[in-house]
Amino acid sequence: MSSRGGIEINKIAGAILLAGVIAMVSGLIAEALYTGTIAEEKPKEKRGYTIAVAEDAASAASAPKEEKPVDILPLLAKTDIKAGEAESRKCSACHTFTKGGGNGVGPNQWGLVGNTWAHKSDYSYSQAIASGHGKKKWDFQTLSDFLTAPMKYAPGTKMSFAGVKDPQARANLIAWLNQQSDHPLPLPKGK
């Protein structure tokens, strides 16, 4: 290789090195102009403008809406028992519904509607449910509120089911559950 070729390679390497130095210095100058500090210092205040209205609107849009309990009684007056039985299939992964049936991951649900919380003596309930034994009953409205979002209604419950969001589907399920009993409660009459 001639000495002329070596000089050309040195020129190319020098040009690349100079371009890198210029890019680095330009970046530091741009940062200093934008933040008002050099790279090693912390900015003293946030630059630019904050539009409080835009942030409040964005946070309000992302905040979960507070759900009010749905009055289940009018919906129980127009239930579809077959649809309720179909809805119960979601529950059958953890619960059984037959008279004298065994417990699964969750307790057997025979005779649940109208019964006290923690009604099965052979099941180990979470403290969230066991604390209601003898004090609370699974009436139509309580069952509806619980089935909407079990973990929200009874924090600490073992029931990890997300809930039945559709009120009519929930009413259908409750009407079907009511029939899984020796003494079903009378359903409300339609107006």
General description of the model:
- The structure is a single chain.
- The chain is mainly alpha-helical.
- The protein has two domains: 3-62, no CATH class; 73-179, Cytochrome Bc1 Complex, Chain D, domain 2 (Orthogonal Bundle).
- The chain is 45% helix and 0% strand.
- It contains eight helices and no strands.
- It has helices spanning 3-35, 52-62, 73-76, 81-88, 127-130, 140-148, 150-153, 167-179.
- The chain is rod-shaped and about 105 Å long.
What structural keywords apply?
2 domains; mainly alpha; 8 helices; Cytochrome Bc1 Complex, Chain D, domain 2; 191 residues; rod-shaped
Gross morphology? rod-shaped
Given this structure, which CATH class of the largest domain is correct? Mainly Alpha
The gyration radius over C-alpha positions equals 33 Å
Please identify, by name, the CATH architecture of the largest domain.
Orthogonal Bundle
Low-confidence stretches are 54-59
Strand content: under 5%
What is the mean predicted local confidence, pLDDT?
A: 84
Major β-sheet annotation: none
The helical percent reads: 40-55%
Question: Could you state the CATH homologous superfamily of the largest domain?
Answer: Cytochrome c-like domain
The CATH topology of the largest domain is: Cytochrome Bc1 Complex, Chain D, domain 2
Class of secondary structure makeup: mainly alpha
Number of strands: 0
